[in-house]
Amino acid sequence: MNKSLIAATFVCSVVSLPVNASVPATVQVCVSCHGAQGQGLEGVGPKLAGLSSAYMAAQIKLFQSGSRQNPLMQPMAMMLQGDNIQVAADYFASQPVGDISLLYRGDKVAITDPAEKLAYQGDWSRDLPACFSCHGSSAIGAEQFPRLAGQQASYIKSQLEAWQKGTRKGDADNMMANVAGKLTAAEIDQLAQYLASLK
């Protein structure tokens, strides 16, 4: 079965799911993969709670334009049009997310864990900025820079690989493709596990 047929079958099954009365009608299409409160489902849909409304609205439009490629998400994104994009983004941005202890750059001088070091300090010998430079203290995110703290490790890994392969595009100045392109496979694994552990 090819990916398009799998996606079409999945979309049909999602459309026929029971309605969750606590979720706005516009958002029902997102619930089966991302959960009613945007907590995500491992291996199916990433966490949306904790992401900004502006970021999610932009990502839906990138899926629609093909700048982000995913055989399941692209047809789902097409089901949200006009004002409904903002309704869905606002709904998930308003969902609660757990508090975490903020770790600021400079709090630690000596860092031995290679993933933690990349996240805090980057690697200037390779022109790699620290993850926290854009994604905020403890990677809690800010506006167009998504929250990575507590996100599923498998999702973070898949997105870094997508940036490397060019199946994900659309950020300013191709910034993330440049960053991901300098990471080794081992570093991607380590960063995904480290960022997922920030809770």
TrEMBL record:
Keyword Cytoplasm in annotation: no
Processing and modification events after translation: Binds 2 heme c groups covalently per subunit.
One Pfam match: Cytochrom_C
Residues that coordinate or bind heme c 1: 30, 33-34, 73
Domain Cytochrome c, first and last residues per copy: 1-199
Membrane-spanning ranges: none
GO molecular function, one term: iron ion binding
Any one GO cellular component localisation term in the record: periplasmic space
Binding-site list for heme c 2: 131, 134-135, 176
Signal peptide residues on this chain, from the entry's feature table: 1-21
SUPFAM superfamilies, per database record: Cytochrome c
Stated name of the protein: C-type cytochrome
Protein's organism: Shewanella aestuarii
